[in-house]
Amino acid sequence: MWMFILEGLTGALLILHYVPTSGGAYASVQSVAHVVPYGFLVRNLHYWCGQIMVVLVALHMVRVFLTGSYAAPRRMNWTIGILLLVSTLMVDFTGYLLVWDSRSFWAWTVARNLMETVPAVGDATASLLFGPGEAVDSVIVRIYVWHIFLIPSLMILLMIWHFWRIRRDGGISEPL
Known about the structure:
single chain; mainly alpha; Cytochrome Bc1 Complex, Chain C; 7 helices; 74% helix
């Protein structure tokens, strides 16, 4: 939760300088890193808090699994935790794409092409998540909206539900 809060604070500062266009994304990231006063610090905090958050969520899920806290009456909270883990990975991936350098372009291409291979729903899901098949400005805007609004909003709702379920189900599990 604390990494998520730090992500929100540093992300709010980065929003002030990020330009979500194919021509402006990389240049704005470089500007933040090299021109904006203390921009390198804010960007690195945002990046490293995101990486730490992925590790902490994964470690939390391992702890819950090892202590058997996924069993009744906490099964629903385990499911919410899985959704939070997936959301954390998605927000991390969309953040990686927002740099829009050659690595993130190819990561977007691979992810979109993989999504298209899902039978029946692949094409529609790829278009919904990653935008059109060609790299245009609307792709970056779509990824940007997923990264700064849609996924974090979902995560806030899931965290509220998760914490409420912990209280409702009688607190955290007993240690091993």
